[in-house]
Structure formats: C-alpha cells, structure tokens
Amino acid sequence: MSERASIDFSGFSCPTSDGSAERIVLGHGGGGLLSGELIERIFLPAFGNPVLERLGDSAVLEELPGRLACSTDSFVVRPLFFPGGSIGELAVNGTVNDLAMSGAVTRFLTAGFILEEGLPIVDLERITAAMAAAAAAAGVRVVAGDTKVVERGHGDGVYINTTGIGVVPEGVDLDAGRIEPGDAVVLSGTLADHGMAVMSLREGLGFEAEIASDTAALHGLVVEMLAAVDGIRLLRDPTRGGVATSLNEIASLASAARRAAGREPVGIEIDDAAVPVAPAVASACELLGLDPLLVANEGKLLAIVAGDEAGRLLEAMRSRPEGRNAAVIGRVTRRPAGKVTARTPIGGSRVVPLPVGEQLPRIC
Amino acid sequence: MSERASIDFSGFSCPTSDGSAERIVLGHGGGGLLSGELIERIFLPAFGNPVLERLGDSAVLEELPGRLACSTDSFVVRPLFFPGGSIGELAVNGTVNDLAMSGAVTRFLTAGFILEEGLPIVDLERITAAMAAAAAAAGVRVVAGDTKVVERGHGDGVYINTTGIGVVPEGVDLDAGRIEPGDAVVLSGTLADHGMAVMSLREGLGFEAEIASDTAALHGLVVEMLAAVDGIRLLRDPTRGGVATSLNEIASLASAARRAAGREPVGIEIDDAAVPVAPAVASACELLGLDPLLVANEGKLLAIVAGDEAGRLLEAMRSRPEGRNAAVIGRVTRRPAGKVTARTPIGGSRVVPLPVGEQLPRIC
User: What is the C-alpha separation between B195 and A33, in angstroms, rounded?
Assistant: First the structure.
C-alpha cells in the first residue's frame, strides 16, 4: 500500500480480485487495472477491430452516407444460456432485427454490460464469443462498449444493452399509412420457438432436446424481400408479446395514420389454421396453457404486403433458410377497425387482444 | 378473462398492475398494454419528438454529413437521487461528454431502462424529467428507447443505458500520438465534487448542504476550446477512477502511440498544490481517507495542450461557467515513461498509480 497510503478501503466493498480472477468482482467495474484486464482479456479478443482498439471515450467512425437508423434494446433473459443460443446471440440479433424492420442494414453496434458480482468469468467469455460470432454473421462491428458491476443480489449475472446504427437504403419507405384493406399478412416461419425454448428449460418441461430458440439475424432476408417486390408496407419482428402484440400495434398504427389522412381505419384478420407452429412447440404451449400468438420469437418477422404481391414475396422468402416456412397467415380488413381477429378452425371468430402485461417475464 | 381463455397465468408472476399503477410491475416490461401505458404516460411526454412518436422498432433519422462518433454508457449509481442531480442527468451528460471528448457534438441519444419491480412510478417520472431537461440543455434528441422490468431483488430501482450518436466537425483530430513533452495538463475545474456528493449522502457524512454533484454537459466548453487554440492534443473526462485513472490512460496511450512511430515515450507530472478542490470536498475526502485524484467527476475535463497555448486556452475556458475554475495542473515530461507522478507541497514526488479496482462502487 506504500504508493496509495492516502486511500483507506475500510467501509468499502473489497475492490480487488480474489487472485484466481475467475469471478467478476466489483473492481472490474471501477475503470482501473481490473477493468483494463477485462477489456484486454475478454472484450478486445472477442470484438477487436481498429475502432474499438483505440480505446477512446467514444468511437469515431467513418461517414455513413444516407438516412441513418438506430435502435436500442436491453436484454435480461433468464437463464443466460438456453437451447439454441444465449443472451449473447439475442443481444446482437435482436438489435440487428429491430433495424432490419425499418429496412436498415446495421453497420455498428455498441454493447453495454451490467455484470453482477460473482459472475463466473467463463460465462462472460461464452457470452462475448456468442456475440462476436453473431456480429460477424450479421456483418456488424462492435465499436464501443461499457462495463458496470453491481453487487451480488442487484443483478442477475449479466444484463446487456446493445444499440445499433445502420443505414436505410435509398427508396425504402416502410410506413403504416400505406397499409390497405386486402393486403396480406405474411409470417416468415414457425411461431413461439424462442419463448418455449426458454420456458421449457426454466420450467423443466423436458422439451429441451426438441425445441431450440430461433434467434437469427433477419437483415439478409429483408434485403431479399425488398428486392423481390415493391408492395411491402411494413415489417415487424414479433418478439416480446408475440405476434398478437405486433399485429395489434400494426392495426393501431395503420388506423391512426389512415385516420390522420382522412381515410377509414383498418383491422387485421388471421386464420388460426394457417399459423405455422412446430409440433413440440405446440405441445409445450398446451402443457403451459399458453397461446403461441403471445409467445416471443427472436428470428421471425411479420410483413404486410400488397395482396397481389404476396405470392412473389413468399417465393423470395422461401429461397432463404430464415424464410423457408414463410406463410400468409391473414389479411388486412375494413373492420373491426383497429382490432385483430382470428378465424378458428371450427369456423368461429375471436378477438386477439393486446396482452395487458407480461405473459413470460424475462424472455429476452 | 373471456377474450383470453387460452392463457393460464398460474405459475407465472402476476403481470398486471395493482390498480393504483403507482409502482412498476413486471407487466410494464412485457410489450403489451402496460408497456404502452408507460410509454404514453412517462416517456413520450418527457422525450416526445416526431422520430420517437413514430414508435417503430427503430428510429429512422436524417442524414448526418461528416464523420460519425458514438459512445455507450450504463448508469448504476446508488442512490438514484443526490445533491446536484440524479441518475437522469448523469445518463444524458455522461454520454454527451464521452462524445465531446472526441470533439463530437451529440445529436441523438437512445435510452434503455432496466426497471426493478416495485419502483415508484413517481421516481421514474422524476428521472425522465431530469433526462429531458439535460437533453434539452445539451441540444440532443432522445430518438429511441427500451424498457425491461426485472423481479424485485434483481435490480436496484433503475439502471439506464444511453448511447449517443454525434458528428465530429471537420478539422478536429484529437490523437494521443500528438502529445509532446512540454505540453500542459489543463483541468476544467474543481475535483471530486460528484463522487463526494454521492458518498456524503451514502455514508451520512452531513456534507449534503455543501457538496453537490458537478454533473454537466461539456460539449459547449469543448467547442469553445477547439475554436480558441489549435494545439489541443487530447481530451478526457475523469469519471470513474478520477483524474488519476485518466492521466494514467493518457500517459500510456501517448507512450504507445509515440513508440509505434519510433519516438520516445512520455510521462505526466502534476503539481498537487495546483489541483483545485473545494474546501468541503477536501474535508469529506479527508474524513473518508480518499484521494481526490481518485474520485469521480461528472462535469470536468482534462485537456493536453501545447505548452505555449495553455494561457490562451485557460482564458477561453474561464469565459464559460463550466470552465471558470480551469487551471494548469501539470505537464507532459520525458520520464518516468508511461507513468504519472505528483509533486507534493513539501517538494517530494510520488507515483500516482492506476487504481486496481473500484474505490467507490456504483458512483455513476
């Protein structure tokens, strides 16, 4: 302590490593030597690129010509690892997908970590490796980061925020106001895989071998879709709250935009029988009494497209692995305005409401 | 439950509001009605602007001509409110300042909230109001946001991540490799105000009336400084780990950059007596046995500037309130290479080390 005689640590939490350095301690968030060690040992090897390696307070990037887009998302999924992925893949793909829903291609990603004291460093290594692989697959560079550490009992291992910065290509203009009665509602694949993978593990349902998260980046699929047809009105990725939430938001946004332009509002009708759900996922949902329409997806998108272009769009989507099970699941209707309804297999009709709260907490 | 007969909530946490809606419940993070209520009631009134009001998965922005810069930071300060500010001001000013240290002017900000179940909604309102006021003062728009809710005991009220996107003006080229022996080390004002404001409150020292956080946006000061002189080499804001950490980083970055160019490394020498510290802050530091050089600041910057331009720079800085106590606190030396030393008032010299861990956990 000779060089630091003026510092008295009594009364503060021990800031130093336990020697083995195999768990996160508060000092890893202090901005000092231990923080530097974490950056050198974990973050730079995983994400290393010339921008990040400059280690400035901020990242200076090149010029991005065109309209910028940005999106931010925090990830608090529990548990951190699940069949098909981890919080790491979610954190990258989730933000890449949010940007893709604007037609934007993500170029840069920032990553903010809130670590809980006691986290095994090997877990952090697995997570950053998963993020790095997902970022490489999506053609995205992690250009800035931050790490904070909170005391045991004030976190849950790792929370991650990612913010993406991308560019919207010339000519792309997705807008709820362009939605018309007769438009088709297209879903890119099977529903509820992510939510049920996490829930099966959490509740010990024994479906772990059969159900894997669908986490995937969808920007490539979106590029393909926008190139194939002109009539795509809007894209959404049905994550938290599932397809039911996204469709309610679409119906409500479209109706508001149309009303503002002096036009009639619209509703959405889906066909329960047309919604693709994998058999194991359907069984797990039934066991837990969950509606697959309300369960989170992490690698699927909804597209509203001009009715006469739906066939061409499906063909383009099915040419890619992320869209191989794409299907038309419904259409835009004149009424009931602003609402979503579903035709049931026995010929009835039910309202698909916007859920009140959270059916499955901490799912992403 | 008639419309949602297929959903069985048994076994899940109660997702609905308690009726008074005065505390955060898990459902506020679910993406459904309660999430929407939070957006309508809290976030849009605080941050409302046309981009945010589109409520898309991502924000589509205008073109930003010039080199982009971005920075991300998570805030986990405890307690949430302290003399001089709250986590809200920190979250905005901290990121604006990180960008300002690259010479960048922040244009857009994203905000990701991780709320703990049970947080009084009135606290969230105070925090978002503080963020909105800080953003307005800094000329920054909040263009995208996200809210997650974690169970009681897995957070600490509110954690906030902000990511800033800005533009670096033409001609600005801050670079540690341009640092030369003889350069002056300039500090923009008194040290340790933020850290000691939080610690005084946390430890019940009774200095609350006298010490307030210095949280402030520094981009205006930086614009003034860059306009006043050409010889600014590098800027840093000494937050976590304080001036000691920032100066060690500067010495190390400058030495590495100079070595890479085949030149001699450099050190930094500061003069203890020249470092401005407010009397109450000095007393609080003494009481806790803390070195003010290690305590966090949230509205101060360090500049390395050509020695013969230091006078002109000080004059420009003192013309603004954020820089009125600016002072030259040291200089760049030839040795000891890569290290920071301090001349003591009695004529001795001590090494100012990079701290190992966190002296004051959860300070920002």
Answer: 19
